[in-house]
Design goal:
It contains 8 helices and 20 strands. It is α+β, with helices and mostly antiparallel strands. The protein has 3 domains: 99 residues, Pseudouridine synthase; 123 residues, Pseudouridine synthase (2-Layer Sandwich); 58 residues, Roll (Archaeosine Trna-guanine Transglycosylase, Chain: A, domain 4), CATH 2.30.130.
Protein backbone atom coordinates (compact mmCIF):
# COMPACT_ATOMS: atom_id res chain seq x y z
CA UNK A 1 0.00 0.00 0.00
CA UNK A 2 1.35 3.44 -0.91
CA UNK A 3 2.10 5.87 1.95
CA UNK A 4 -0.61 8.23 0.71
CA UNK A 5 -3.20 5.44 0.59
CA UNK A 6 -2.16 4.28 4.06
CA UNK A 7 -2.51 7.82 5.40
CA UNK A 8 -6.00 8.18 3.92
CA UNK A 9 -7.05 4.80 5.35
CA UNK A 10 -5.84 5.72 8.83
CA UNK A 11 -7.58 9.09 8.73
CA UNK A 12 -10.85 7.40 7.76
CA UNK A 13 -10.86 4.53 10.29
CA UNK A 14 -12.46 5.59 13.53
CA UNK A 15 -13.78 3.42 16.32
CA UNK A 16 -13.48 1.92 19.76
CA UNK A 17 -11.82 -1.18 21.18
CA UNK A 18 -12.99 -2.54 24.52
CA UNK A 19 -9.95 -4.22 26.06
CA UNK A 20 -9.86 -6.61 29.00
CA UNK A 21 -6.65 -5.27 30.56
CA UNK A 22 -4.36 -7.82 32.21
CA UNK A 23 -2.78 -7.24 35.61
CA UNK A 24 0.72 -5.77 35.69
CA UNK A 25 0.29 -3.29 32.84
CA UNK A 26 -0.47 0.40 33.02
CA UNK A 27 -3.18 1.87 30.82
CA UNK A 28 -0.42 3.63 28.89
CA UNK A 29 1.26 0.25 28.31
CA UNK A 30 -1.96 -1.02 26.72
CA UNK A 31 -2.20 2.07 24.50
CA UNK A 32 1.41 1.48 23.38
CA UNK A 33 0.66 -2.15 22.48
CA UNK A 34 -2.37 -1.13 20.43
CA UNK A 35 -0.52 1.76 18.80
CA UNK A 36 2.22 -0.63 17.69
CA UNK A 37 -0.22 -3.33 16.58
CA UNK A 38 -2.48 -1.07 14.53
CA UNK A 39 0.13 1.38 13.28
CA UNK A 40 -2.15 4.24 14.38
CA UNK A 41 -0.79 7.20 16.32
CA UNK A 42 -4.10 8.74 17.35
CA UNK A 43 -5.10 6.47 20.23
CA UNK A 44 -6.46 7.34 23.67
CA UNK A 45 -8.59 5.94 26.48
CA UNK A 46 -11.48 7.09 28.67
CA UNK A 47 -10.09 6.35 32.14
CA UNK A 48 -6.96 4.81 33.60
CA UNK A 49 -6.69 1.56 35.52
CA UNK A 50 -4.00 0.90 38.12
CA UNK A 51 -1.35 -1.63 36.97
CA UNK A 52 -2.63 -4.21 39.48
CA UNK A 53 -6.24 -3.84 38.23
CA UNK A 54 -7.78 -5.83 35.39
CA UNK A 55 -10.88 -5.42 33.27
CA UNK A 56 -12.61 -2.94 31.00
CA UNK A 57 -10.44 -0.30 29.35
CA UNK A 58 -12.11 1.75 26.60
CA UNK A 59 -9.64 2.56 23.81
CA UNK A 60 -10.39 5.23 21.20
CA UNK A 61 -8.82 4.97 17.74
CA UNK A 62 -8.40 7.56 15.01
CA UNK A 63 -10.82 10.53 14.91
CA UNK A 64 -12.83 8.78 17.66
CA UNK A 65 -10.32 10.14 20.21
CA UNK A 66 -12.29 13.37 19.95
CA UNK A 67 -15.35 11.54 21.28
CA UNK A 68 -13.98 11.06 24.79
CA UNK A 69 -15.97 13.92 26.33
CA UNK A 70 -19.21 12.68 24.73
CA UNK A 71 -19.03 8.97 25.53
CA UNK A 72 -21.13 8.02 28.55
CA UNK A 73 -18.32 6.53 30.65
CA UNK A 74 -18.83 8.50 33.85
CA UNK A 75 -20.25 5.48 35.72
CA UNK A 76 -17.82 2.66 36.51
CA UNK A 77 -18.41 -0.84 37.88
CA UNK A 78 -15.83 -2.85 39.84
CA UNK A 79 -15.38 -6.18 41.56
CA UNK A 80 -13.15 -5.35 44.52
CA UNK A 81 -11.33 -7.72 46.86
CA UNK A 82 -10.68 -6.09 50.23
CA UNK A 83 -8.35 -7.64 52.79
CA UNK A 84 -9.03 -6.89 56.45
CA UNK A 85 -6.51 -6.83 59.29
CA UNK A 86 -3.71 -4.71 57.79
CA UNK A 87 -3.11 -1.19 56.49
CA UNK A 88 -0.99 -0.42 53.41
CA UNK A 89 0.64 2.94 52.69
CA UNK A 90 -0.62 2.76 49.10
CA UNK A 91 -4.01 1.40 50.19
CA UNK A 92 -3.41 -1.71 48.04
CA UNK A 93 -1.28 -4.86 47.98
CA UNK A 94 1.58 -3.19 46.10
CA UNK A 95 2.47 -0.99 49.03
CA UNK A 96 4.23 -1.38 52.34
CA UNK A 97 2.12 -2.80 55.15
CA UNK A 98 2.36 -0.18 57.90
CA UNK A 99 -0.04 -1.71 60.42
CA UNK A 100 -0.73 -5.38 61.06
CA UNK A 101 -2.08 -7.69 63.71
CA UNK A 102 -5.58 -6.26 63.79
CA UNK A 103 -8.44 -8.67 64.22
CA UNK A 104 -11.01 -8.68 61.45
CA UNK A 105 -14.80 -8.73 61.65
CA UNK A 106 -16.55 -12.08 61.65
CA UNK A 107 -20.09 -10.72 61.52
CA UNK A 108 -21.23 -10.24 57.92
CA UNK A 109 -24.17 -8.09 59.06
CA UNK A 110 -21.75 -5.67 60.74
CA UNK A 111 -19.74 -5.36 57.51
CA UNK A 112 -22.84 -4.76 55.38
CA UNK A 113 -24.15 -2.11 57.79
CA UNK A 114 -20.90 -0.16 57.46
CA UNK A 115 -20.85 -0.67 53.69
CA UNK A 116 -24.27 1.02 53.51
CA UNK A 117 -22.76 4.23 54.95
CA UNK A 118 -20.62 4.59 51.81
CA UNK A 119 -23.49 4.81 49.31
CA UNK A 120 -24.69 8.11 47.89
CA UNK A 121 -22.73 11.35 47.55
CA UNK A 122 -19.68 11.10 49.79
CA UNK A 123 -16.26 12.68 50.23
CA UNK A 124 -13.03 10.73 50.11
CA UNK A 125 -9.33 11.52 50.31
CA UNK A 126 -7.33 9.96 47.44
CA UNK A 127 -4.30 7.82 48.35
CA UNK A 128 -1.01 9.67 48.76
CA UNK A 129 0.37 7.24 46.17
CA UNK A 130 -1.74 8.56 43.28
CA UNK A 131 -1.13 10.50 40.07
CA UNK A 132 -2.82 13.65 41.37
CA UNK A 133 -0.49 16.63 40.95
CA UNK A 134 0.63 18.92 43.75
CA UNK A 135 2.33 22.09 42.50
CA UNK A 136 3.04 20.35 39.19
CA UNK A 137 4.46 17.16 40.76
CA UNK A 138 2.71 13.81 41.00
CA UNK A 139 1.72 12.85 44.52
CA UNK A 140 3.26 9.38 44.31
CA UNK A 141 6.65 10.85 43.38
CA UNK A 142 6.55 13.03 46.49
CA UNK A 143 5.36 10.14 48.67
CA UNK A 144 8.18 7.90 47.45
CA UNK A 145 10.66 10.58 48.53
CA UNK A 146 9.24 10.42 52.02
CA UNK A 147 7.44 13.75 51.86
CA UNK A 148 4.22 14.21 53.82
CA UNK A 149 1.54 14.31 51.10
CA UNK A 150 -1.74 16.03 51.96
CA UNK A 151 -4.46 15.67 49.34
CA UNK A 152 -7.79 17.45 49.41
CA UNK A 153 -11.08 15.65 49.86
CA UNK A 154 -13.11 15.15 46.71
CA UNK A 155 -16.79 14.56 46.14
CA UNK A 156 -17.72 11.24 44.54
CA UNK A 157 -20.89 9.22 44.13
CA UNK A 158 -21.22 5.57 45.15
CA UNK A 159 -24.32 4.24 43.43
CA UNK A 160 -24.06 0.82 45.07
CA UNK A 161 -21.68 -1.09 47.34
CA UNK A 162 -22.89 -4.68 47.43
CA UNK A 163 -21.67 -7.65 49.42
CA UNK A 164 -20.76 -10.65 47.23
CA UNK A 165 -18.71 -13.05 49.35
CA UNK A 166 -16.75 -13.08 52.59
CA UNK A 167 -13.93 -15.54 53.24
CA UNK A 168 -12.08 -14.00 56.19
CA UNK A 169 -9.96 -12.01 55.98
CA UNK A 170 -11.06 -11.10 52.44
CA UNK A 171 -14.32 -9.54 51.28
CA UNK A 172 -15.42 -9.52 47.64
CA UNK A 173 -17.76 -6.63 46.82
CA UNK A 174 -19.42 -5.09 43.78
CA UNK A 175 -19.06 -1.32 43.52
CA UNK A 176 -20.72 1.04 41.05
CA UNK A 177 -19.42 4.59 41.32
CA UNK A 178 -18.77 7.85 39.54
CA UNK A 179 -15.67 8.39 37.45
CA UNK A 180 -12.71 9.56 39.54
CA UNK A 181 -13.57 7.43 42.58
CA UNK A 182 -10.60 5.72 44.24
CA UNK A 183 -11.59 2.16 45.13
CA UNK A 184 -8.37 1.94 47.17
CA UNK A 185 -9.68 4.74 49.38
CA UNK A 186 -13.00 2.93 49.82
CA UNK A 187 -11.15 -0.19 50.98
CA UNK A 188 -8.95 1.82 53.36
CA UNK A 189 -11.86 3.84 54.79
CA UNK A 190 -13.99 0.70 55.25
CA UNK A 191 -11.20 -0.81 57.33
CA UNK A 192 -10.95 2.36 59.41
CA UNK A 193 -14.68 2.39 60.12
CA UNK A 194 -14.63 -1.27 61.10
CA UNK A 195 -11.61 -0.64 63.31
CA UNK A 196 -9.56 -3.46 61.82
CA UNK A 197 -7.72 -1.79 58.95
CA UNK A 198 -7.98 -2.91 55.32
CA UNK A 199 -6.44 -2.54 51.89
CA UNK A 200 -7.44 -3.38 48.33
CA UNK A 201 -5.94 -6.74 47.37
CA UNK A 202 -7.61 -7.16 43.97
CA UNK A 203 -9.62 -5.10 41.49
CA UNK A 204 -11.46 -5.84 38.26
CA UNK A 205 -13.33 -3.16 36.34
CA UNK A 206 -16.53 -4.80 35.13
CA UNK A 207 -18.13 -1.81 33.45
CA UNK A 208 -17.26 1.60 32.01
CA UNK A 209 -20.38 3.49 30.99
CA UNK A 210 -22.33 1.32 28.54
CA UNK A 211 -19.41 -1.07 27.98
CA UNK A 212 -18.97 -4.21 30.08
CA UNK A 213 -16.69 -7.24 30.26
CA UNK A 214 -19.02 -8.96 27.78
CA UNK A 215 -17.86 -6.42 25.18
CA UNK A 216 -14.18 -6.70 26.12
CA UNK A 217 -11.46 -8.55 24.24
CA UNK A 218 -8.42 -9.90 26.14
CA UNK A 219 -5.28 -8.03 25.13
CA UNK A 220 -3.58 -11.32 24.21
CA UNK A 221 -6.38 -12.02 21.70
CA UNK A 222 -5.94 -8.56 20.19
CA UNK A 223 -2.19 -9.05 19.88
CA UNK A 224 -2.79 -12.27 17.93
CA UNK A 225 -5.30 -10.42 15.74
CA UNK A 226 -2.71 -7.70 15.04
CA UNK A 227 -0.32 -10.38 13.81
CA UNK A 228 -3.03 -11.99 11.66
CA UNK A 229 -4.23 -8.64 10.30
CA UNK A 230 -7.87 -9.16 11.29
CA UNK A 231 -8.12 -6.93 14.38
CA UNK A 232 -10.78 -4.80 12.67
CA UNK A 233 -13.38 -7.42 13.63
CA UNK A 234 -13.18 -6.14 17.22
CA UNK A 235 -13.51 -2.46 16.31
CA UNK A 236 -16.82 -0.89 17.36
CA UNK A 237 -17.83 1.85 14.89
CA UNK A 238 -17.80 5.28 16.48
CA UNK A 239 -21.48 5.83 15.64
CA UNK A 240 -22.49 2.62 17.43
CA UNK A 241 -20.74 3.73 20.61
CA UNK A 242 -22.89 6.85 20.97
CA UNK A 243 -25.97 4.97 22.10
CA UNK A 244 -27.42 7.91 24.04
CA UNK A 245 -27.68 10.21 21.02
CA UNK A 246 -30.43 10.57 18.46
CA UNK A 247 -29.36 9.26 15.06
CA UNK A 248 -29.74 11.53 12.05
CA UNK A 249 -29.18 9.75 8.72
CA UNK A 250 -27.77 12.13 6.14
CA UNK A 251 -28.39 12.07 2.40
CA UNK A 252 -25.56 13.26 0.18
CA UNK A 253 -26.78 16.89 0.14
CA UNK A 254 -27.16 17.06 3.93
CA UNK A 255 -23.77 15.42 4.39
CA UNK A 256 -22.11 18.03 2.21
CA UNK A 257 -23.81 20.82 4.15
CA UNK A 258 -22.72 19.42 7.52
CA UNK A 259 -19.13 18.96 6.32
CA UNK A 260 -19.10 22.63 5.31
CA UNK A 261 -20.50 23.77 8.65
CA UNK A 262 -24.00 24.53 7.42
CA UNK A 263 -27.24 23.70 9.24
CA UNK A 264 -29.75 21.18 7.98
CA UNK A 265 -33.52 20.99 8.64
CA UNK A 266 -34.73 18.64 11.39
CA UNK A 267 -37.65 16.28 10.89
CA UNK A 268 -40.94 16.99 12.63
CA UNK A 269 -41.33 15.65 16.17
CA UNK A 270 -39.37 15.77 19.42
CA UNK A 271 -35.60 15.92 19.44
CA UNK A 272 -32.88 15.76 22.07
CA UNK A 273 -30.30 18.47 22.57
CA UNK A 274 -27.59 16.50 20.76
CA UNK A 275 -27.67 14.09 17.84
CA UNK A 276 -25.20 12.06 15.81
CA UNK A 277 -25.01 12.59 12.07
CA UNK A 278 -24.44 9.31 10.24
CA UNK A 279 -23.88 8.79 6.52
CA UNK A 280 -25.93 6.31 4.50
CA UNK A 281 -22.90 3.99 4.76
CA UNK A 282 -23.02 4.12 8.58
CA UNK A 283 -20.02 6.42 9.12
CA UNK A 284 -20.13 8.96 11.94
CA UNK A 285 -19.94 12.36 10.25
CA UNK A 286 -20.52 14.79 13.11
CA UNK A 287 -22.21 15.56 16.39
CA UNK A 288 -25.18 17.87 15.99
CA UNK A 289 -26.89 20.42 18.21
CA UNK A 290 -30.66 20.88 17.87
CA UNK A 291 -31.78 24.50 17.41
CA UNK A 292 -35.47 24.58 18.46
CA UNK A 293 -36.07 28.16 17.32
CA UNK A 294 -35.45 27.29 13.66
CA UNK A 295 -36.02 23.51 13.94
CA UNK A 296 -32.59 22.77 12.51
CA UNK A 297 -29.55 20.66 13.30
CA UNK A 298 -26.32 22.62 13.68
CA UNK A 299 -22.89 20.96 13.35
CA UNK A 300 -21.20 20.89 16.77
CA UNK A 301 -18.14 18.73 16.05
CA UNK A 302 -17.27 17.32 12.64
CA UNK A 303 -15.29 14.05 12.55
CA UNK A 304 -15.29 12.84 8.97
CA UNK A 305 -13.04 14.61 6.46
Amino acid sequence: MRDEDSRKLKSAISGILIVDKPSGMTSHDVVSVIRKGTGFRRIGHTGTLDPRATGVLVILIGPAVRLSEYLVCDKKGYEATIRFGSVSDTYDGDGKVVQTGHSYPMDEEEIMDIMDTFTGNITQVPPAYSAIKINGKKAYDLARKGEDVKLKERNVTIYSFDFIEYNPPELIADIVCSSGTYIRSIAHDLGQKLGCGAYLSGLKRTRSGNFSLRDAVPLSVLQKAFEDGNWYQYLIPAADALTEYEEVILNMEDEANILHGRRIPASQGEHGILGKAVSEQGELIALLEFIPETFEWKPKKVFYQ
